[in-house]
Structure prediction request, 69 residues.
Amino acid sequence: MSHLMQEALAEIQKLPEQEKENFAAWILAELTSEKRWMTAFAKSEDVLAQLADEALSEHRAGLTQPLNP
Prediction:
């Protein structure tokens, strides 16, 4: 385990039990969310590449306009 992880865990151990539980639930939810995002992103690479190619083609053909927020 890295030094930073050991330091973080030592600080977590100082928290009241309910805060430890809340923190652990938050970390687990974040990890689950990250896994879902990575899976969804990996499955969409071909679609994203196709959309990028289409956007570049439209731009090269002069069919786009500058964004003026």
Remarks:
- The two ends are 47 Å apart (CA to CA).
